[in-house]
């Protein structure tokens, strides 16, 4: 097998910061070619690209765009398939939060949250799956939340979207199992990312005390689990794997 053929390819959506950034760096560290996606944080995405190029053996290709927009996703995958014939792993990580009463949420906020957190998973899977089916190999890993399992007060829309990710994961896993493609989700607890940066120090402390592990998880811990899931036995599919420090 040639060196070009032995290269592995992964797309990480929402790769400019937090969990996505940590996942991109984790795969690059192992020599993978990483497709880096984000919607608007292009300066931060460029920083990730430079870090990969300077520090790791893997290569990367930025593929900016809104994965909640089907036209953008088509363009992203057109660029991907100019570089490689098929993704080995798709990491659907892009997501946004919304905290507030359901009755205060606008139509636009609802649509944007669903597009970013749920529709993006559908659009990216739809584009990634056909070459995987042809090759009869591939892994899809959806980054979700414990709130998709148990729900959170004042995060009804976010909880609904992540619950949708869980349902899509389980159903698509059954659909793709005959083609030897594994689909799993990782239900994150409280992770120390920008999404939780709005918390005041006393709020962070109170929340950490509610978690049996007594702390927030690091993005790198989630990235390690993503890496392990990408290399799990092929019989493991359709699972929602929790990483929440015992919270639920």
UniProtKB/TrEMBL annotation:
Pfam families: adh_short. GO terms for molecular function: oxidoreductase activity. Signal peptide: none annotated. Keywords: Lipid metabolism, Oxidoreductase, Steroid metabolism. GO terms for biological process: monocarboxylic acid metabolic process; steroid metabolic process. PROSITE patterns: ADH_SHORT. It comes from the Bacteria. InterPro entries: NAD(P)-bd_dom_sf, Sc_DH/Rdtase_CS, SDR, SDR_fam. Coiled coil: none annotated. PANTHER family: 3-OXOACYL-(ACYL-CARRIER-PROTEIN) REDUCTASE (PTHR42879), 3-OXOACYL-[ACYL-CARRIER-PROTEIN] REDUCTASE FABG (PTHR42879:SF2). Belongs to the short-chain dehydrogenases/reductases (SDR) family. NCBIfam families: EF_P_mod_YmfI, PRK12826.1-2. This is SDR family oxidoreductase. It comes from Mordavella massiliensis.
